[in-house]
Amino acid sequence: MDNRTDFTVANTVPVVPEANPVEQWQAALEEAGELTPELVEQITGVHGDRGVRAIEAVGEGRVKAYQDFTIVVGYEDEYIVEAEGCTCKDSEYNLDDDDPTEQCWHVLAVAIARRVGHVDYHDMWYSEVRELL
After folding, report:
1. Each residue's pLDDT tens digit in the chain (133 positions)?
2. How many domains are there within the chain?
3. For a surface tag, which of 43, 87, 88, 130 has the fewest beta carbons within 10 Å of its beta carbon?
4. Domain that holds residue 94
5. Are 26 and 114 in contact (CB under 8 A)?
6. By CB neighbour count within 10 A (0-12 exposed, 13-18 middle, 19+ buried), where does 62 fall?
7. pTM across the whole model
8. Neighbours of 34 (CB within 10 A)
């Protein structure tokens, strides 16, 4: 029997032996492709209320991708999320950049939505749409 196929497939899965809690739930969500009760518990266990808000935003379709930015529609405004950074006040003032578990709920919502395929894509520039708002 030729085991090269099995060997090749087995060795294409990246192993992250010392993954932090964020990397762990992100990898599990990537693999599952959907929010399971276990993943919801894991995300909210790591991120608390921010995780809850992020999951709600994804479920309500409030993560939107434009040609120039990804936007999360918040309770009072729309926030630009880029490279795991956000324009919200929570991200600016309250979070420790060196702690991967400290992310605003907008960044978490984008991370979740991308992994479960719930990003609302718009073939236009947000900078132009924003001028109309």
Report:
1. 444 444 433 333 344 568 899 999 999 999 999 999 999 999 999 999 999 999 999 999 999 999 999 999 998 999 999 988 999 999 999 999 899 999 999 999 999 999 999 999 999 999 888 776 6
2. 1
3. 130
4. 4-132
5. no
6. buried
7. 0.83
8. 10
